[in-house]
């Protein structure tokens, strides 16, 4: 995993299969952004030369060549954070299996980058909101072992759950709510126990499924 202190201001980001566009986040973090295209061999040769910190793979661009490119990159650049970008979720499951660092919807890439580089270098896996909402709706993956009508969350637990649904990290939740990191962990454990789920992701799925978080709304938690 990349070290925040050394990468936020010296980060090389390669956009593969994208048309060049303004990058407001670059000015803030002084990151170097490169747009590359061409055949898969040309792209791989360029990446081998420059050793990127982050690669954004636009799977909807014909030259990317599907998940085969991801597999080759993971083999040659095991420490590079590789994010899959697509307008659909059809590459999601193979991308997770092959070790991608995240899956972003085409329409949300700019927003994700403008919010800062911290999530892209600090989390194990990053979803954009539209991807996870669409995937949960399509797969019907969320299953709670506890009837929804019997769940009683405290107001603070609801606040934590809403922030968790936004894919906020424990540290971000603590900063937003003004509480200790250990207190966030305490609330998440209680939330998981009350919901009868096994992980943070399942708790997040519950929150989206039950309307605790609407990605179309920007106000509030």
Characterization of the model:
- Helices cover 47% and strands 12% of the residues.
- It is α/β, with parallel strands linked by helices.
- It has two domains: 4-139, Response regulator (Rossmann fold), CATH 3.40.50; 148-209, Orthogonal Bundle (Arc Repressor Mutant, subunit A), CATH 1.10.10.10.
- The protein has a six-stranded parallel β-sheet.
- Strand 1 (12-16), helix 2 (24-29) and strand 2 form a beta-alpha-beta unit.
- The chain is elongated and about 55 Å long.
- The two termini are 28 Å apart.
Q: Order of helices and strands, N to C? A: HEHEHEHEHEHHEHHHHH
Outline the biggest β-sheet. 6 strands, parallel
Structural class by secondary-structure content: alpha/beta
Number of helices: 12
Categorize the overall geometry.
Answer: elongated
Strand order of the largest sheet: 2-1-3-4-5-6
Q: What count of domains describes the coordinates?
A: 2
Percent of residues in helices comes to: 40-55%
Give Rg in angstroms. Answer: 18 Å
CATH superfamily of the largest domain: Response regulator
**Mean pLDDT across all amino acids:** 77
CATH T-level topology of the largest domain: Rossmann fold
Quote the distance from N terminus to C terminus: 28 Å
**What percentage of amino acids are in beta strands?**
5-15%
CATH architecture of the largest domain: 3-Layer(aba) Sandwich
Highest CATH level, the class of the largest domain:
Alpha Beta
* Low-pLDDT segments, ≥5 res: 1-8, 216-221
How many β-strand runs? 6
């Amino acid at each position: 995993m990349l070290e925040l202190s050394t990468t936020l201001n010296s980060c090389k980001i390669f956009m593969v299969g994208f048309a060049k566009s303004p990058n407001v986040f670059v000015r803030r973090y002084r990151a170097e952004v490169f747009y590359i295209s061409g055949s898969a061999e040309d792209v791989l040769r360029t990446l081998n030369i420059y050793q990127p910190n982050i690669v954004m793979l636009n799977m909807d661009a014909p030259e990317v060549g599907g998940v085969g490119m991801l597999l080759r990159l993971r083999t040659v650049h095991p420490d590079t954070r590789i994010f899959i970008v697509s307008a659909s979720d059809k590459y999601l499951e193979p991308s997770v299996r092959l070790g991608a660092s995240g899956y972003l919807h085409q329409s949300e890439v700019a927003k994700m980058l403008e919010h800062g580089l911290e999530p892209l270098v600090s989390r194990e896996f990053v979803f954009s909101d539209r991807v996870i909402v669409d995937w949960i709706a399509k797969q019907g993956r969320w299953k709670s072992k506890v009837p929804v009508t019997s769940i009683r969350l405290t107001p603070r637990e609801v606040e934590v759950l809403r922030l968790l649904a936004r894919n906020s990290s424990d540290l971000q939740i603590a900063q937003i709510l003004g509480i200790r990191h250990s207190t966030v962990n305490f609330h998440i454990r209680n939330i998981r126990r009350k919901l009868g789920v096994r992980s943070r992701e399942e708790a997040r799925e519950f929150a989206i499924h039950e309307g605790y978080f609407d990605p179309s709304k920007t106000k509030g938690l």
